[in-house]
Amino acid sequence: MGLVGMFALSLVFVSCSKDENEAPTNDQADLIAEISQKKIPKEVREAVKKLNLNSDYIKYDTFHFPDGKTEERLYIEKDIILTEEQLFDMAEAAEESDGRQYSTDNLVSQGRTISIIGFTGGSQALSSKERTALQWAVNNYNRLSGVSISFDLTFGTNYQSKDMVVYNNTVNNPSGAGGSAGFPSNGYPYKFVQIYGLSGYSTNVNEHVITHEIGHSVGFRHTDWFSRQSCGQNSNEGGGGVGANHIEGTPTGYDATSIMLACFSASADGEFNSNDIIALQELY
Asked: What mean pLDDT is predicted for residues 237-246?
């Protein structure tokens, strides 16, 4: 059974924009190349270490919005996306917090109804299958009892006023399959949830990836952050403690059916397991 890596991280700075379906100009291409070659400053590495994320897997790269605009961001551990400002804010908060499935220190405000939109315009529109998968993913969260956050789902192109937008970014990720998202800040979820390369997978697998990425957006880390065993690896994304807080009532070891595993299989059913539900009920 093939295992597929899922995620990417990013931090945001304004850089350049392009119209949808238009090839970048030479200047834009040069800027994109320049961003990808930027060296990681010492203060960025130190902030990543404070969150107990793996400081060996950091890069600057171009982040693509649904309307075709781009910004420079930091990608950490290939599946977490943050702006530099978000990274430094989270690192500062981590210094003041104590440790408590695994969550980040930043969470969504209790009781919040999260407005989420499935993007339907241009080259980054969700397909019919992906829209169905998004509806199923939202249902995964909204059907849970004892969880104070909920989601109000719509479809369209007016994403600016929404708390979260889910869109297909295969056009800018021609190889691989999975998704990317970031972590909450200021009591709000991470806004931009991308999926890519999933057209050949079932609706259930699409549901799995979207549910997983929404999980990052509301503050969950990978269940196997300490080993990435689901990817057939033996590597640590970053030590336990601040920024990788164990959630009471869930296992500390490998949980083979969690929706928050670092990698997914082609037989994923897209549903929470019992520990995922406990984690959501404990945090929210």
From this structure: 50
